[in-house]
């Protein structure tokens, strides 16, 4: 049962500062409604088209997080409602988010996505690239994007030592950026890491947002969206 699973995760998070993002990709809106009715409010989707299709079907107080790679030309579709874009990996993307958020008179929250996994295919910034963004004039003049932390996807492995190393690496980036660029900004506080298979380790290593899909909704069937 989705409600039991959701309550289980909420209980796991009791006494921590971390929150749950229920990753709803590939699941039909009826199941998302079930998660909402059980108290879930932070939902994560990884595809713009799917997010845009589901959002109007569900209650307006859901905090939508985009957790997948975002192409600049698709920002306009999510700008009217998205709460947090967790996958910011370029200045160009940040500039487009700023532009689209301004059009809608909104402030969109964002996380800088770091490359922490061994796999080459996973998206994300290096520390040097992130600092280049944060030091740019373009970034400093932005008023409609608020960076609230960092995000990372660890290697798909059950090697605990490796996972811990990667989570620590991400936390290290967070702490460095916090001290250097965001010391006066309490809103910069999120470390988004940990999924169904590795969220316990991620919490131990300081995660503030776990992104959990299959452990709540069951296995995904990529053939049958909604
Ligand atoms: C799908 C996805 C998750 C959730 O994965 P599960 O293993 O189903 O918990 C978390 N983060 C990202 C970026 C994802 O794409």
Automatic annotation (TrEMBL):
Keyword Protein transport (UniProt): no
Source taxon at top rank: Bacteria
MF terms in GO: pyridoxal phosphate binding
Annotated ranges, domain Alanine racemase N-terminal: 2-220
InterPro entries: Ala_racemase_N, PLP-binding_barrel, PyrdxlP_homeostasis
Gene3D superfamilies given in the database record: Alanine racemase
Cofactor needs: pyridoxal 5'-phosphate
Keywords: Pyridoxal phosphate
Modified residues (N6-(pyridoxal phosphate)lysine): 25
SUPFAM superfamilies: PLP-binding barrel
Pfam families noted in UniProt: Ala_racemase_N (PF01168)
Family to which the UniProt record says this protein belongs: Belongs to the pyridoxal phosphate-binding protein YggS/PROSC family.
Entry function: Pyridoxal 5'-phosphate (PLP)-binding protein, which is involved in PLP homeostasis.
Name the UniProt record assigns to this protein: Pyridoxal phosphate homeostasis protein
Source species: Hymenobacter aquaticus
């Amino acid at each position: 049962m989705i409600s039991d699973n959701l309550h289980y995760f909420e209980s796991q998070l009791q006494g921590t500062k971390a929150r749950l993002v229920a990753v709803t990709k590939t699941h039909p809106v009826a199941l998302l409604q079930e998660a909402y009715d059980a108290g879930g409010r932070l939902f994560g989707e990884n595809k713009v088209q799917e997010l845009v299709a589901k959002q109007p079907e569900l209650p307006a107080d859901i905090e939508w997080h985009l957790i997948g790679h975002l192409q600049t030309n698709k920002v306009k579709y999510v700008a009217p409602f998205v709460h947090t874009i967790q996958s910011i990996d370029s200045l160009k993307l940040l500039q487009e988010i700023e532009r689209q958020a301004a059009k809608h008179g909104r402030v969109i929250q964002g996380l800088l996505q770091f490359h922490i996994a061994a796999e080459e295919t996973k998206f994300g910034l290096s520390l040097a690239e992130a600092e280049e963004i944060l030091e740019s004039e373009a970034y400093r003049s932005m008023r409609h994007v608020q960076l609230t932390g960092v995000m990372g996807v660890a290697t798909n492995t059950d090697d605990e030592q490796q996972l811990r190393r990667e989570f620590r690496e991400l936390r290290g980036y967070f702490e460095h950026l916090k001290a250097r660029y965001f010391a006066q900004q309490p809103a910069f506080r999120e470390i988004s890491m940990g999924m169904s298979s590795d969220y316990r380790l991620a919490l131990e290593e300081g995660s503030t947002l776990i992104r959990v899909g299959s452990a709540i909704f069951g296995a995904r069937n990529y053939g049958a969206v909604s």
